[in-house]
Every structure is written in C-alpha cells, then in structure tokens.
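Appendix C reproduces, verbatim, an entry submitted by the partner laboratory led by Prof. M.T., so that reviewers can inspect both the input and the predicted structure.
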Amino acid sequence: MKLYNTLTRDQQEFVPQDGKTVRMYVCGPTVYDHLHIGNVRPVIVFDTLRKYFQRFQGWDVIYVQNVTDVDDKLINRSIETGEPVSEIAARYTQSYFNLLTELGVETPSHSPRATQFIPGMIDLIKGLIDKGLAYEADGDIYYRVSGFSEYGKLSGRKLDDLRVGARIAASEKKENPLDFTLWKKSKPGEPKWDSPWGEGRPGWHTECVVLSRHYLGATLDIHAGGNDLIFPHHENEIAQAEGLTGKTFARFWLHSGMLMFHGQKMSKSLGNFAYAHDVIEEFGTETVRYFYLSRHYRKPLDYSTEGLEAARVAITRIQTLIDEVTSELGASELATGTGSDTNEQGRGFLASLQPLRERYMAEMDSDMNTVGAIAAIQDIVSETNRFRASATGDARLALQGAISLIRELGYPLGLFQKTESTSKGIEDDLIRLLIDLRNELREKKEFALSDSIRDRLAKLGITLKDTAQGTIWT
C-alpha cells in the first residue's frame, strides 16, 4: 500500500514499524461548540483508512484522537456565556462522541483529554528548557525556533521567509517573533495549574506531542489531520518532539483537504458553515460519507446541497438493489449467504465480479483513492442489475454473493451495511398481506382499489415494484 507523505511530498510504500500494528494519531476537536460539517471530513477520511487497514490489510490499529478541553476558544466561550470551561468542555465532548456514533465512526482506541496530562506537558517543557530549546519570559514559556535546524521541513517554509512581516505583540516577551508558546501564565478567572514557572496552562502545540507519545511511543507510524494543521500546529509538534529526543516523530504525515464554501474555507469565524448534526439529520449518514469519499481525500471539496443530493441519489440506487434482493431472497438467507449453492451460470457471474474487487483494492492501495474504489462498487452494482434481470432458478442465488461483496467493499467506506429491509415482524407481515390483497384485486381487474393500496403505501414511504418474480417492496 502506498500513501502520500506530506513530509516527503510523494507517495511511499506504507508498512507498520512492527509489521502488524499501526500506531496512528489523528488530531481531535477543541470542544467549545458542536462540529461543523467541514470539521467532519478528516474524521470520516481517517476512519475509512483505519477500517481498510483492519479489514483488508489485516493490521491492528491503535488509533488515538485527543480532545482539547482547555484552550483560548473555550476560555472565550466561557467569558461570553458565564459558564465554567469544564462544563462547556464536558457538554461538547459528549456532543462529539454522539456525532461519531451518528457518522458510523469506529470509537478511537484512546480519546485522552488534554487536562488529564498536564504533568506530562510540564515534564516535556522542562526537558526542552534543559536542552536550550525553550526559555521563560515573565511566567510564559516559549520554544526557541532558531534552536531547531529542521524547523519548516513539514510545511516547506524557510525561517528567513517566515521572519518577513513577523511581529511580536505588545503582550509578549519573545526573543524571536516566530517562537511559539509552550506554557501560558494564567490570567484572572482562567483555568490554571501549578508549575515551576507559576500558575498557568499549556499551549495547544504541546498537547498532541505528549498525548501521542504516551500511547504510541516516541515514533508514530501515522500522524494525521486536516491540511490547515500543517503549519503551524504539526510543524511545532515536530520541533518539540524531535528537538527533545532526536528521533523521528512520525514516519508518515497524512492531511485531508479543506471543505470549501463558494471557494472559501468553511469556518465559524466567517459564518459560512453548517453544523454537522443538522446536515446528517437532513441527508443521512451514508449520504454525508459518500459525499466526502467521492472526492480524493487530499483535494479541496466544495460544499453544496446539490453535491449532497447527488450523493443521496447514488446511495439510494445501490441501497435499492440491496433492499430488493433482500426482499426477493429473504433477509436471513442474504445476511449469511455467499451464493455457493448457485448453478454454473451463477458461479460464472460471481467469478466475473472478482476483477472488480481486485480493482477496488488496487485503488484503495493507491493513496486511498476512494473515488476509484466507489467506481468499482458502482460497476459491481451495474453488473448485478444486469444479471438479476435475466437470471432464473438457482442462478439467482448468486445475488447473495454479489450483495455480500458490495457490503464487504462498502465496510471501510461506512456504506451499505444495513442488512435488512426497513420493517420487521408484524409490520413485514402486514405489508405482505396488503401486497397479496392488491394482487388479488388486480387479478379481478379492480385496478382502482389496487392502485389505491399502492399509492397509500407510497405515502407511508413503502415502494412496491412488480417484477417477473412477483411484487417486492422497499
């Protein structure tokens, strides 16, 4: 498998350090508000990569994602509302985990809160001071950028270029305008912790270094996030971690592209955003995931209701096939069947799908090209629809294998995992009773009544389709 490494600016073969376990860190949310739909892109992208590693590469994944529960944004929200920072953080942390469930995202292996690791951050800062890479100025601690010769290697920026136009704010006492904050002296009413330099709180850039090293060791396999984090956040992480240990901090740096709104970055500060939970409520989880994954993860993506509607149409086409075959063959048989009991015609059909499965894997192995992977699934759906239209008898059992394949390939993408039609139990029986009644009315040529049953079911969201094998419903 090859992944594009931001650090080297090319695709490189990826294999875990120990050959079987991927040590992966993805930057998480600052919990001062609900996530907007742009924040969701890296969540979905790297959840997809994790699931592909596990299901198709056979690797275990230790997946760590932090929760920033102390930060300027939280403090500012506290000042606005009068609510304690801890209560704001607790509420929106729960909101975030609810959102992960809504999105079908696998729970991280570890979700550490920044406030749980303050002593470790203090120890890291002490180590940087001892090495001459950090210094104190009136209770604040700054990282001395000039002391790390490789500063800028991730973003490709040079120190001389960065210095142009850089300024030191009146409230700061830096040696160099590029030096960044490791520890902030507390102001009245702000969250604070004791330290050798007085009461204060850690800087954001220090948090991820400490949390990732705690769970994943000195060298990560993958560090990931949105590409807006490349500079300064990820650059500053490298400066701290590698400046302290001299070891490579992360072997691969992966970054997803921005979600744009009419050509601008979507952000709360600009007011051009939609909350993720509102979009999911309107369009559904699979539509949102399909919308993101139908564009390569590194490219920018423009948000639009038209794009989401197109994604919904595509999802509906595939899910309709699954639901109709489920109705024809029975949900229990479809959930467990592979089509192995089919005849020669059916086996030939299933064999013809294997090159499409291989194409799917080749696309995913090429820097997680979900666009090509989805195209392979769409071709499987097209072939299945063609086969279904002509197959008879035992050959139709091959449809079990086709649907199983669609679900298998959809799993990393978080798509097509529903295994049963919408209704169960007595509702199933009642709908079938109405279908039988409608068919009897049609045989008696009482078309007005039979059409009335069809139309009233449609108003309830139940669609009838008459086929050569009988009437099916979704």
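Confidence is low (pLDDT under 50) at residues 420-424. Additional entries are available on request from the coordinating office.
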